[in-house]
Amino acid sequence: MLGLFRITRGGDQNMRIVSSCTLFLVLMQVASSLALAEVLPQFPQGSVWRQNISAAAVHPDSAKMLSTLELLGGFGGNRFQIDFSMRVVHADESAPLLKLVSMRDADRNEIYYTGDCDATGSMVPVPRGAVIEGEDGMRCEEDGDCHYLVKQGNLLFEVYRANVAGNNIQAQCLATWNLDVVYPPENRNDHCTSADAAGMPIAPMLFNADEVQASLNIDPSGEGDLGHMIRFILPNARIARDAQLGGSSGKLYVRPASHAGNPQGPASTVPYGVHLRLLSDFSLDNYNPAARVILNTLKRYGMVLADGGNIALTAESDYYTTTKWDELGITSTVFARSQGNRTVRVTDFEVLDTGPRIAETYDCTPPVPPAGLTSQE
Fold it and tell me: Any residues with CB less than 8 A from the CB of 36 and at least 6 apart, and which?
């Protein structure tokens, strides 16, 4: 910006005014196409993701399931750790659109989840400054999950294994959600995956530094909460599979999930979609106010098993947020290492009764995409 001002002539006031106006218009045009920092996307108040479950019924086998999970090793790495690698991009209507194409393996075979996910040819907004999970830009360099989460208007685009190549965005799945809709229990449809193995949305179950700070602005002591459930993951070897239930190799899930990934654990452990609630008497002593907000959220809204992996909780990176995690005193191990406070273990939770186990058949009826989507086939 300074360089643009320096080209004006110091003795020409009219030139300075014109240049200043021009600069303002240029900056406005650039800003309109940038990835913007905003609050996390949320569904309407009546959705399952925003229900206070502090008084919800406990599953009769809660203690047995959590005891089995503890014997299997508990949370990944045997600690309740936070992953800060997810980013949520906010795009306005001027953002460039890239065409969705299927990812291909080393032999050039398509590996897109056709039928479960939105059709290839769909257009995905990718504003300037957008980044995918765990990367510095829009290229998936480490062959990881590389989730790309972007909100535009009332639509939430969630891409699994995203990678931008030219004018295309390669992916293994795109699931688009309408944020104005209260989805039915089967989400986008039973047995249909999404950008997450459990068929659920990702971004509305993340938590970020700005929303923690917003809660602290209302109650600086940390007695508030985030107002929505949180996403967590477990190693697949610790997630329930039950051959007696039938389906595909005994794979299964419970609500609010609508799909199972690749569970490999005993039937007596927790299933995909399990909704856990932190015990009401879990002591918050010696936790700082920001940590207390997160723990109170786990007591009042709980957390739901969404995917297979090793780091339990999923927060949003502070890449786009105004408040930074360091400012709040939240580290990846704040709940996992004793600093005069009680560490969080799987046995500090209880399993909520969200209905019977559903055998996974992988027989997905293609979901109807939200209105307003564009495609180029």
Answer: 90, 91, 92, 127, 320
Q: Is the pLDDT of residue 187 over 70?
A: yes
Longest dimension (CA), the chain: 86
pTM of the predicted protein model? 0.89
**What CA–CA distance (Å, rounded) separates 199 from 215?**
29
Residue (of 76, 86, 83, 79) closest to 332 by Cα position: 83
Q: Please say if the pLDDT value at position 108 is more than 60.
A: yes
Rounded average pLDDT over 232-253: 97
CB within 8 Å of 131: residues ≥ 6 apart: 35, 87, 89, 137, 138, 319
| Amino acid, res. 282 | F
Residue-level pLDDT at 1: 29
Residue of 83, 84, 82, 78 whose CA lies nearest to 346: 78
Mean pLDDT of 345-367: 96
- C-beta atoms surrounding 135 within 10 Å: 18
Under the banding of pLDDT at 50, 70 and 90, the label for residue 370 is: confident
Please give the single-letter amino acid code of residue 343.
T
